[in-house]
Specification:
This protein has about 290 residues and is of the alpha/beta class. The protein has a single domain, classed as Aldolase class I (TIM Barrel). The chain is about 50% helix and about 15% strand. It has 13 helices and eight strands. Bound molecules: zinc ion.
Length: about 290
């Protein structure tokens, strides 16, 4: 019953409804459960993401089977996505293991290399009917300076999507991975221009810490997938440290639940933001 729609179809549906999909990274059973409790309670779809580090930590087959079993158990419409892979080999392994979607991130390479590797992944993914996301421009990674210019150029985005046939495109419009040291400022005009000249589903990385109104405005202007990782890790670990400070309990089945609930609360808040963002921001046309 689940996963009847491909992610490509779902992206179009979300765009038509003025909503976006929330893409959440999970790291273990506890964060997975926290996320799915939220999606289930909110009756909203979700993308479950794994990075190479998480795949290495949990083991590919265990991570995939755990995610699939959990989606089914919670009756949540969801997709499994490989986040930020610079390795073609890992992408092959993940597609073989049943991922619905993969990201090839060659954004730090020259655009001609980014185009050729992305095209290769798109060709491969067709055999699996899987969604492919690429990145164009510079979204600062953890530990990288976030003030470097390297925003996605609309003309380049159009060329890139046409040349590669990629389904989804992560755009650099002012967001960054990790925590923000100052309030993020999204270049919404640029986003509108990119949206006007490409057919790809647009993805916003570095969703942690961006104010709700700004996220809604970005959705209104064409973002249909928002990635959330840092806030999930941070929320889980802060709550865990908090509860451990005054607790000598060695029963980890009692120790973890407060941290799981904190993740659920966070993800519910984010799901509320991405749901029908357009309807909620009709009166915000003065945002530019
Ligand atoms: Zn990212």
């Amino acid at each position: 019953m689940l996963n009847k729609k491909t992610l490509q179809q779902k992206h179009k549906e979300m765009l038509a409804h003025g909503s976006a999909l929330l893409a959440t990274n999970f790291y273990n059973y506890e964060t997975l459960r926290g996320i799915l409790e939220a999606a289930s309670q909110m009756k909203q779809p979700i993308i479950l993401q794994l990075t190479k580090s998480s795949v290495d930590y949990m083991g590919l087959q265990i991570a995939v089977k755990m995610a699939r079993a959990a989606l089914e158990e919670y009756a949540v419409e969801g997709w499994l996505h490989l986040d930020h892979s610079d390795s073609y080999e890992l992408i092959v392994q993940c597609l073989d293991a049943g991922f619905d979607s993969v990201m090839i991130d060659a954004s730090e390479k020259p655009i001609s290399d980014n185009i050729s590797i992305t095209r290769k992944v798109v060709e491969l993914a067709k055999q699996y009917n899987a969604n492919v996301e690429a990145e164009l421009g510079y979204v600062a990674k953890l530990g990288q300076p976030s003030d470097k210019t390297g925003f996605t150029e609309p003309e380049e985005a159009s060329l890139f999507v046409n040349e590669t046939g990629v389904d989804a495109l992560a755009v650099a419009i002012g967001s960054a991975h990790g925590f923000y040291t100052r309030a993020p400022e999204l270049d919404l005009e640029r986003l509108s221009k990119i949206h006007a000249c490409t057919s790809a589903a647009l993805v916003l990385h570095g969703g942690s810490g961006i104010p709700a109104d700004m996220l809604k405005e970005a959705i209104k202007r064409g973002i249909c997938k928002i990635n959330l990782a840092t806030e999930i890790k941070n929320t889980f670990m802060c709550e865990l440290k908090n509860s451990l400070a005054n607790n000598q309990d060695i029963d980890l089945r009692k120790v973890f639940p407060p941290a799981i609930h904190a993740v659920t609360k966070l993800v519910k808040e984010k799901l509320e933001i991405v749901k029908n963002a357009v309807l909620l921001t009709d009166s915000m046309d003065d945002y530019d």
